[in-house]
Give the backbone structure.
Amino acid sequence: MKDRLFCKVLENIEIASNIYKIEIEKVEMLQNIKAGQFLNIKCDDALLLRRPISISYVETDRIGLVIRKSGKGTVVLCNKRKGEMLDVLGPLGNGFTIDEKEQRVIVIGGGIGTAPLLELVKRLEGKDVTVLLGYKTEPYLVNEFEEYVRDVKVATEDGSFGHKGYVTELFIEAIKENSAEMVYACGPEIMLKEVQRICSKYEVKSQISIEERMACGVGACLVCTCKVKAEEKGVKYVRTCKDGPVFSGEEVIFHD
Amino acid sequence: MKDRLFCKVLENIEIASNIYKIEIEKVEMLQNIKAGQFLNIKCDDALLLRRPISISYVETDRIGLVIRKSGKGTVVLCNKRKGEMLDVLGPLGNGFTIDEKEQRVIVIGGGIGTAPLLELVKRLEGKDVTVLLGYKTEPYLVNEFEEYVRDVKVATEDGSFGHKGYVTELFIEAIKENSAEMVYACGPEIMLKEVQRICSKYEVKSQISIEERMACGVGACLVCTCKVKAEEKGVKYVRTCKDGPVFSGEEVIFHD
Amino acid sequence: MTKIDMCVDLNGFKMKNPVTVASGTFGFGREYAEYVDLNQIGAISVKGLTLEERQGNPTPRVVETPMGMINSVGLQNPGVEYFIKHELPYLSQFDTKIIANINGNTIEEYCKMAEILSKTSVDALELNISCPNVKSGGVAFGINPDMVYKVTKSVRENCGKYLIVKLSPNVSDIKEIGIAAENGGADCISLINTLIGMGIDIETQKPILARGSGGLSGPAVKPVAVRMVYEVTKVVNIPVIGMGGIMDYADAVEFFLAGADAISVGTANFINPKVTMDILKGIEGYMERKGYTCVKEFVGKLDF
Amino acid sequence: MTKIDMCVDLNGFKMKNPVTVASGTFGFGREYAEYVDLNQIGAISVKGLTLEERQGNPTPRVVETPMGMINSVGLQNPGVEYFIKHELPYLSQFDTKIIANINGNTIEEYCKMAEILSKTSVDALELNISCPNVKSGGVAFGINPDMVYKVTKSVRENCGKYLIVKLSPNVSDIKEIGIAAENGGADCISLINTLIGMGIDIETQKPILARGSGGLSGPAVKPVAVRMVYEVTKVVNIPVIGMGGIMDYADAVEFFLAGADAISVGTANFINPKVTMDILKGIEGYMERKGYTCVKEFVGKLDF
Ligand SMILES: Cc1cc2nc3c(=O)[nH]c(=O)nc-3n(C[C@H](O)[C@H](O)[C@H](O)COP(=O)(O)OP(=O)(O)OC[C@H]3O[C@@H](n4cnc5c(N)ncnc54)[C@H](O)[C@@H]3O)c2cc1C
Ligand SMILES: Cc1cc2nc3c(=O)[nH]c(=O)nc-3n(C[C@H](O)[C@H](O)[C@H](O)COP(=O)(O)OP(=O)(O)OC[C@H]3O[C@@H](n4cnc5c(N)ncnc54)[C@H](O)[C@@H]3O)c2cc1C
Ligand SMILES: Cc1cc2nc3c(=O)[nH]c(=O)nc-3n(C[C@H](O)[C@H](O)[C@H](O)COP(=O)(O)O)c2cc1C
Ligand SMILES: Cc1cc2nc3c(=O)[nH]c(=O)nc-3n(C[C@H](O)[C@H](O)[C@H](O)COP(=O)(O)O)c2cc1C
Ligand code: FES
Ligand code: FES
């Protein structure tokens, strides 16, 4: 049977301002992880609910998380010290699907949404992969992506690094240059909406990983519902935690 | 103005099973401490209320607390590591009164109630002091008391150390042998009641430090009320935190 | 050592142990079956059902609060017929009691559902007259004793199953609501459902929940729940299933002492999917320590 | 940079800032005066007064709960006359508004107290019809709209001061209670008082409070409080002082956005005696960040 897992923090370093890379022990039960899956993490006794955090990369003995300090829970997580234990549930969610037949793929990440794409890119080895990374001002994980892919382009909103502007601008360029068979994206909703629009315009398939507030993380409580297009009734309500967080880009209906 | 104080933990050692001696930095504002005063300590974010803990001893640069792991808060406190910060309010309460004129005094402590008596005994230097300490089974702080007083007697309920039985039995012996001008006591209610009874029988004055559940610790919320005898109306309701925790033994009216 | 018997008998409704899971927090059992052996749970109250499928409220549907959470799922569920066809058979594999939590916009809907479900293998119905997350029906029924009596009585007449009525805590006098349910013919009372609460995002200046307010659950509400269980069990003669913020065995024992015959675990499942098993073991440990051989020995044994 | 004006005017009741302290959590100001400059607090609601001295309930009077506390002080206070003679002169030294929180067993007692206090220098009366910790009067008045109307109206007739009515959250419909207070002649409403809760010691099998149950306060109740402030401010036309679990400026801002004209800090004082000053600074910071120059600009500005 599955259970909560208690994993030791092996390392925690601030890799950019307010962005932390935390490596935790890959305990025995943390098996068969797919890129795009997440952990639901108990931060401390003072915070009731767990926090969903993507698995950024997997190594033989450890799992890497990349976390942005944003609210109470992530502040606690980012302050965890080497040797402390993390109480995690997972791996959860469906993760990205990789199709042997798709050779030319584009991977787009925005901000902390770049985190889960790292493991994905590792697993896309052998394909023709373009990685597009967008940040407000300070990039991170770029070197890590470059370990696996030669073609990594960066955009920053303020132009402090790479292309000045949105990563979706790079995306349009890339897709025009050499259309893709699959687009993988993770980032803020506004970026994903734009990716959705562009993919639809250029008729490219996509898989996008979305965010929704969660409680159980396993599909039981229905607080994380996402609206998707459905054959029969037009719309269908699915669980971001269990049926997602990765959905086909065509099907997701964003809030307006 | 007074404020919360943030004191670094300098040392934390388990001195008996489930009994911890925690030394914290004596920050500048922690001045003019009287023996018998206490601190109201915030354990962590998950526990709302502070916990009252006596000041056990005071040194130039540090304050010693002796804490028994008993519930949620004390478990957290006893797990504090060197270097962590403690958020404390204090010194609070009235503390023991020492009268120049009283020469022969008896000090009785039961269990964790021995803690605040250590600083008291230090300050009783020069007097003829008998210290009687009672424990269930495992004594602690005995050596510390012996540093200041030659006449330290120990009782344990199971006889594993010193007199087998209650410390109040030693008290009766001591008072019979050589009556005292003042008795100082701190310990479980059942012991204090017995001390009260004995003092009244042998007509000895006493100061006893009592426990009551607290919230504010400063005298504002009135949850820690203790009933005492009063001149006019027979009884009076006083605040354990502000008017106590030390009361004249004659006046306290215990719950029955 | 005498053997500890964890069975409880709630006036004919027998469970192998008094630890149940609360409606809406355990889905239809499928997800948590990966974490807990459902055969070990006293009863499972399934996600609130309605006559027709419901899509529920827009998201966000959850806010974390100090030691609590507010949800506004809004009874998203596939409808009672789907439940009977696709979920009940799954749940029926397990040796646990199945409680169908029913929700209607009108008394007729409640009755209709009771009728339909009475023909199935569910073990009990739980009349939810207290859901704060729907516009019509729901909580409106739950705060008025006359309405509670009326809806209970009507459902009773259409119900061939053990009938549990679930009370809302958002009332001035929970005792009169409990009495109304008993008089209406309830076999059992469960409480508490969620308190109505609201959380606001001070940066966007909007409520965090798309719906504005929702139902507060978790440890924060436990003191209110224990008090209400105590009050209700003093005035009714039918069994009570207590819930609201139970996180561990000690919380559960508080409810038993207050008068609950069984307890239900909701929000805690989200934090620890195996929590029911921990609670069960904890209760056993408590019983051993105190020398009890069956749960009944300390139900309502509050010394006050 | 435009200057930020923290003054608030609650329909004629002017405070230098909207941060007040809640009755029963700040004594008569003396103790916290060592920690906070009382001149900096908008208003001080003093410990609940009764006509005669009261000794309050037996101890224990407090239980800690998950992010909350339950108290059963039971209105221990030296009586209104003693207050006027010995506490009011002390408080009057400070440049802050003094609110006398009054509690009666009967309408007559309330009126008598109003009459007596109207002749003093207190700035306002706070009619506490919601204290859960006394047997007669107290909460019984607070849960029935007719009684709320009646007691408010009677006190109004005997009261020459600004009249605040403090509501109990232990009701089915807080809106009708708020309306009743307004119709009765209240100048202002304050809410919430405590929710009724209970905690049990599973080892002794007794309630932890000597009185059994008591009033739950602190962060745990905040979601309920915010919701009630939102509901009440939607239906009344008098100012509202919001409270319940406010620990920091962000909590305070939630109440303002929900519709409160001022806020009150209770339990948080026990954890941080200077919390009111932190909240005040925090609100100022928020206003600066958002470009507000006075509090009114974001009172009730919830975008929903
Ligand atoms: C599937 C998934 C994967 C994620 N992966 C990562 C990751 O790898 N790295 C990372 O830094 N962040 C990730 N996030 C976002 C992360 O969950 C939130 O930043 C985090 O929950 C915020 O918690 P907090 O206590 O710091 O903030 P608070 O604002 O204090 O949180 C309050 C409540 O809101 C919820 N909440 C707030 N923001 C979000 C959000 N964006 N998404 C979901 N819930 C939210 C919290 O979980 C909590 O319940 C992911 C979210 C999802 C849904
Ligand atoms: C003036 C004073 C001085 C004290 N000095 C010491 C000391 O030096 N060393 C030491 O180990 N203990 C001391 N105590 C007792 C100590 O305060 C309690 O053991 C502690 O509060 C228990 O908290 P907890 O969270 O571990 O237990 P829990 O049972 O989880 O606490 C629950 C609540 O009850 C209160 N509570 C429980 N037991 C007591 C108690 N005995 N007295 C007061 N409140 C209680 C807690 O403060 C908390 O609010 C003192 C108590 C008082 C009143
Ligand atoms: C996400 C969620 C969904 C819920 N849905 C229902 C429901 O459909 N029907 C119902 O009767 N109660 C529902 N409840 C209330 C719970 O069954 C339970 O009464 C309440 O949460 C208190 O228990 P807890 O504090 O242990 O969670 C729901 C609670 C939560 C948290
Ligand atoms: C110890 C204590 C005593 C209280 N006494 C009174 C009182 O005498 N009169 C009153 O109207 N409210 C009283 N209250 C209620 C508070 O004024 C306030 O309404 C409530 O605690 C909610 O606010 P908080 O969560 O910030 O504490 C008391 C609260 C506490 C915690
Ligand atoms: S978080 Fe519970 S169903 Fe997705
Ligand atoms: S603890 Fe508040 S008055 Fe003593």
Notes: DSSP finds nine helices and 16 strands in chain D. The longest helix of chain D spans residues 275-290. Chain D touches chain B at residues 24-27, 30-32, 34-37, 47, 55-56, 58-65, 67-69, 71, 73, 76, 218-219, 267, 269-274 (CB under 8 Å).
